[in-house]
Structures are given as structure tokens and as C-alpha cells.
User: What shape does this take?
Amino acid sequence: MVTIYGAVHLCTAFRAMIMEGDRVIMSVKFKEMLYGGDYNPEQWPREIWQKDMELFNKAGINSATINVFSWAKIQPSEEMYDFSELDDIVDMLTREGKQIVLATSTAALPAWMVKRYPEVARTDYEGRRHKFGQRHNACPNSPVYRHFSRELAARLAERYGSNENVVCWHVNNEYGGECYCENCEKAFRVWLRKKYKTIEALNQAWNLAFWGHTIYDWDEIVLPNALSEGLEGDKTAFAGISIDYMRFNSDSILNNFKAERDAIRQYDKDTPVTTNLMGTFKGLDYFKWAKEMDIVSWDNYPSYDTPWSRTAMSHDLMRGLKDAPFMLMEQTPSQQNWQPYNSLKRPGQMRAQSYQTIAHGADTIQFFQLRRSVGGCEKFHGAVIEHAGSENTRVFREISQLGEELRKAGGTISGSRNKARVGIMFDWDNYWALEYTSGPNKDLMYVDQIFRFYEYFYNKNIAVDMIPVDADLGKYDLVAAPVLYMVKEGVAEALEEYVAAGGTLVTGVMSGIVDQSDNVHLGGYPGPLRKLAGIWAEEIDALAPEQSNEIVFKDGLRGQCNMLCDIIHLEGAKDIAQYGSDFYAGTPAVTENNFGKGCTCYVGTVLSEEALGRVLELMCDRAKITPVIEEETRLEVTKRVTDKEDLYFVINFKDEELPLPKVFGGKKNLLTGSVLTEGEMLKKYDVRIVCCPK
Ligand code: GLA
Ligand code: ZN
Assistant: This one.
């Protein structure tokens, strides 16, 4: 039963508590699916604006994201604000009935500000104070920046917050980056004092007795960069310090977001506030951020060779941040400019990519950008309106077709939910800690390891939720926690409770090793997971890229493993597979352990895709995990559900034609209204949305 609380905000968008039982399932709903993107009329003469409106209408563009990089224009000096042009832009879009995503413009500093207050610019990892230039360039702990950005957000909200076409606030843009200036250093000390209370606690947490780094005064703390604890590459002499710095930096930037959000809220109580995130971006703890955002939005820029499964994982992660539908704030209609090779999206590819985004939980499709720039580094970046300035382009035609489809189908899809019985843990503390660690193998990358597990489920069309380490695990029949290197307080207990109650947990190598400060859980790996896994990993061997070991399953089947090999003693668990060679040949490599009513599978090495598939298949059988549809297919099949119907998104990302699964024969295609035929063929990038009433 779904109940909606909260007022409808002038019929266009509303922030509301939508409850399913006692769980908040969504906080934002748009009246129609937003279809638009970044629009920068301030970079163009006014004659162009009217032409833009005509073309937007032709393409079915119903929304525009404006004012993303206009700070210098709307505040030409410290003393002066000038909203006259923005007024005209807002008026024009309002007259045209467009929904406006209004950005606050604070992601690029105006030149006058850097000139008068050099402290607003960042100091980089090498300790160099930056001059005016580029964007995403503000020191998050500069009081001057904090003051001006708040003030601007407040003035914008006061002026435009009651406009009913303003359906969403877009604070800043793609927050990220680091600053190592003196203001940040002081703020870091304050942050640490709050966290650790005493110098002794700090010394202990960072294990500062190592290399005689013990400190006696808070003022002795310095930021960990190339001038202090930084080691070759991205490594650090004290991961504990560097991880705390990452947490601090994420919090500092989040404070910038919150300051602007709160300034907006003084004048506009209802319109949802977001900022555009970047998928698996390392710098910010997005689970923490999402708690402060009304709706998650993100920018999806796969490169020409990014597997579709990897993009799907990013979508699932973005949905997982709030366990709710999200906005696709940016994607390119065709080309990018900042990759090494910016290939065109092939015919049908943008449409397929858009439906994949929606299938995994998006309630909007927005582009960067609506009109291609005339100069600057993004002049080769694709847009709805290309340099030719006309509708006679392939890209424009494809956008118009999608616009028409979403106009018809968007209402049915918006607000529908994705459901999964498999959860994969993703955790920014672990991301930072694992990659800061010096040894045992430099090639072990966090997201890659998570993705190897995700990919198995993706290929089988098994729905996955990407979940935080403090998720409600009871919702899942199978939880995978690969490279759960850092086990923070409470996590082992929650996992034990989950497995004891009947859950299936898959974890493994480089798990349970350190606590929140990157100090080792003593007493044998995998530390607090040892009882749960029923094993002790005595040593961890590292294999160079040209090396590998063999895996021998109980039934004699052989596979391969590489990168890391735990040398394991069984302590109640039984082995599923053993190593085939080296001095630890014949010892356990993969194990399973009954614990309470459930089971923990420990994968003690980095298995080849095939071998990992075998292990995960066993665990899926055990946990009775089923794919979205029973029939095996190489199509991507995803499901979103409403109260009334199940919506299956069927997409062909393969180079060959593939038949529609039989089960969809005779059902309605939401995109055309027509009835689907059993066995009809889908070409590459073909899409069907199958509507099955409940
Ligand atoms: C990012 C930014 C945009 C634009 C695009 C180009 O996502 O948010 O302003 O630079 O990249 O791909
Ligand atoms: Zn700074």
C-alpha cells in the first residue's frame, strides 16, 4: 500500500514523503518526465534564443537546466547583482511552458573574487596556490566562498523560488576535488578534535608511534599531501590520516552544498534540491551526501569501450544512494570532448542508453547540452542543436523520436520502483582505504572488484541493489561484500545477524582486515569475519600480472585465479575449491560455512570470470535467487513495478539480432501500444518496454 504525504507544489513537482508500509520510498515526483538538459543562452545573442525555443518544441524538450555557469554574469562585482538577463531567460522558458532546473552557478568562481580574495582559490596536492582559472575551483573551507555562494543561492531562491516552472534546484555542479590550503588545514584540526576529542585518541587511531610521528598538540597536524605523508603514486605513509582527510574533505564540500540548500530553503520550502553526482566517483561519500539531497541526480558519460554492464552498475549505485528513483542530469546526445577518443553514438545508441538509464531507476532524461558551444574546450561536445544550428541532423531526429516516446510513456514509468533480492555492498571508506593501502598488490582496484561480482548478476538478468554497509540486510536473500577490507563498528555484527537468520553472504580476499582507522583487526584474518566465514587466512600471496594459480573445484573442474591468494585454514567451513599449484596447492581457495540458518561463502582469491561465475551460481541456487525472467537470453531485461503493472525493459546491446523472450509474446509494448509477437527479433540497440498488468 503506497501513501503519499505532502502538498503538491503548484502541480509541477513536489517533495513528498511517499511511504510503502513504514519505509520512505520516494521523496520527489515530477508531473511529467523531464526531458531537456543544460542550456546556456547567456553565451549566445538573443536572436538565437527564439530559434532554440522552436527547436526545443520540435524535439519534445520540456525542460532546461539553466544558470549552471553564470556567476560572473549575475554578480559582476562584489557589490552588484544583475539578474536582468536571467529574468528574461526564466520568463522565456516559463512562457514556453518549460520546466526549469535552476542551478546556483557556484561551481566556477568569478575572476573579481579570486583577485580580491585569493583565499577562495584552491591549493593543490603539491601545495601550489591556484590562480583564477578553470572551474570546480573553490576552497570548500574559505569563509569568503561560503559567504558569497550562500548569498547567491539565497538571492536566486528569493527571486525565482515561487515560479511554478522552477521544478528543481541544482546546486553547484559536479562537486569534487581537494584543497590543501591553510584554511582547510585549520578546519581539518577542528574536524579531528570533534571526532577524537583527545590527542591520545588521535595518536592511537593513526598509530602515530609508527616512524615516531607522535604529536603533542593539535597544531602539529598537517594535511596529508605531497609535502607531508604522500608517497609515490596515490599512496600515503599513513592511510589513517589520508582516509580521515578524504572523510573531512567530503564533509567540507558537503557543508558547501548544505549551506546553499539551506539558503534556498529560507525562501522556497518545497522545490526539490539536488546536485549532480558522478556515479562511482571516488572523492565524495555519496551515501552520506544522499541523505542531504531531496533526489539523487547524476551525469552518465561512458566511454566508447565502457561495458553496458558497468554503466548499469553505476545506475544501480545511484538508485541505491536513496533507494529511490533518480534524475539523469546529464548525458551527451552523441559525442563527448574530454575522452581520448570521442566516438559518435551510433544510430539508436543514445535511445538504448536512455532506456537503460530509465530501466535502472531514472525518472528524467537530460542532456549536456542543448546547444553546442561556439568556443572553449567543449566546442566539440555533442548537443541537441549542433553547430549547423538546424533540425536536419541525425542526432536531432533521434532526440525528437525519444522525446515523443517519453511524452507518451513517461507518465506510466515515473515513480515506479526497482526491486532486488541481491544486494552488493559499496562503501566509500572501503574504496579509499583499499586503494591507499601499500601492499600486497597494487593492481587491486576497489570498483573493479565490485564490478566483477555485479557483472555476473547483470549477465544473468538478476536484479541487484547496490547497498551501503549499514543497509537493512533483511531485504536480501544474498548479500555480496567483495573486498570488505575495512570492517567498521557494527558491520560484522549486522552480517552475523543477517547470516544467522538465513541469509547467504559472499565475501572473500582482502576482507575484514582493518578497522575504521586502517589499523589491523588483530588475531588473524579476516578479523571480525573469521567466525562467520569459519576460516583463518594465515598469509596473503600476491601474484604479478604474468602469474596465476589454478583453482580445482570438488568435482574436478578447473579454473584460474590471480592477483591475490589467501592461504586458508578451515575452522568449521568446508572447501568448495582448492589451489592447484605452488606450495599451497591442495589448500582451500573458496569455502562455505554454515552459520545459524544461513551460509557464508569466502572467496580467498581473485577468480577468473568463469570460476567466479561457478561460485556465484552455487550461492544463487542456495539462496533461491531467480532472474527477472526465467528464460535465458542475451538481452538486458530489467523490471520496474508500479501498483498496477510490471514494466519489463528489454534492450539488445549485443552485436547480433536476438529474439524477444517467449514470455513477452502477446503482451503490450508500452512504446508503441502494439502487441508483441513471440520470437520477434531485436536488432542491436532495439528496445521494448513490456507492460504486464498485475
Ligand atoms: C560534466 C559537466 C558539464 C560538462 C560535461 C561535458 O558532466 O557537468 O558541465 O562539462 O561534463 O561532458
Ligand atoms: Zn582550502
Q: What stands out?
A: The first strand starts at residue 2 and ends at 5. Residues 182-243 form one domain. The pocket of zinc ion (ligand 2) is lined by residues 122-123, 139, 141, 179, 181, 183-184 (CB under 6 Å). The chain is about 30% helix and 20% strand.
